[in-house]
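<goal> How does this chain fold?
<body> The protein record starts here
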Amino acid sequence: GVVNTISMKAPFLGTKDRVVDFDGDPKPGVWNYMGVMSSLDHGDVIGIPSANVIAPEGFDSLASFYLYLCDLVTGLPPR
């Protein structure tokens, strides 16, 4: 669902979870904050693109961004 910018970072109320800024190497056991995608809105990110979708900064398409996220997740060590 859609959440405000503060809530998208990580849960804050009633938790002691740690948040770290993502540096390209995901840290297990903490929230890895990846920042705000100012060129996209929520519809773009979930696959309901407008006529003028712009790829996230550093990517040539929205699909390449999703493949990057898949590689990050599958590369995490087992817990």
